Amino acid sequence: MGGMSMGQLFFSFKGRINRQPFWLAIILMILLSAVLNGIIYSVVNYSDAPVVSAVVSLLFVYPALAVYAKRCHGSASPAGGCSC
């Protein structure tokens, strides 16, 4: 992903990425979230699964914000008006 490690991509707000790494990162997070939620619903008690699933989903907020921030930095739009 352009010389950027996975750790930098998902946990740093510095840097720029173009469309391809942006969409690959988003798709990876969606797939990972779906797999984790599937595992949660098969392992955890059905009444507790939504709570555990919400906590797991919250774990993806920071990486998603980091990826979006890098995409906004890489786009030609001004910082205040990012459209990915």
Could you explain the architecture of this structure?
The protein is mainly α and 84 residues long. The chain has one domain (14-74). The protein contains four helices and no strands. The chain has helices at 6-11, 19-43, 49-58, 61-74. Helix 2 packs antiparallel against helix 3 (49-58). It is elongated, with a radius of gyration of 15 Å.
Can I get a quick summary?
The protein has 84 residues and is mainly alpha-helical. It is 65% helix and 0% strand. The model has no long low-confidence stretch (mean pLDDT 85).
Provide the fold topology.
Elements: H1 6-11, H2 19-43, H3 49-58, H4 61-74
Helix pairs in contact: 2-3, 2-4
How would you describe this structure in keywords?
mainly alpha; 4 helices
The H-and-E topology, N to C, reads as: HHHH
The number of E-state strands comes to 0
Can you give the mean pLDDT?
A: 85
**Cα separation of the termini:** 17 Å
- Evaluate the radius of gyration: 15 Å
- Main β-sheet description: none
**Unreliable runs:** none
What is the number of helical segments per DSSP (H or I, 4+ residues)? 4
The proportion of residues forming helix, as a percent range, comes to 55-70%
Query: How many independent structural domains?
Result: 1
- What does the overall shape look like? elongated
Summing up helix and strand content along with how strands pair, one would put the structural category as mainly alpha
Strand content: under 5%
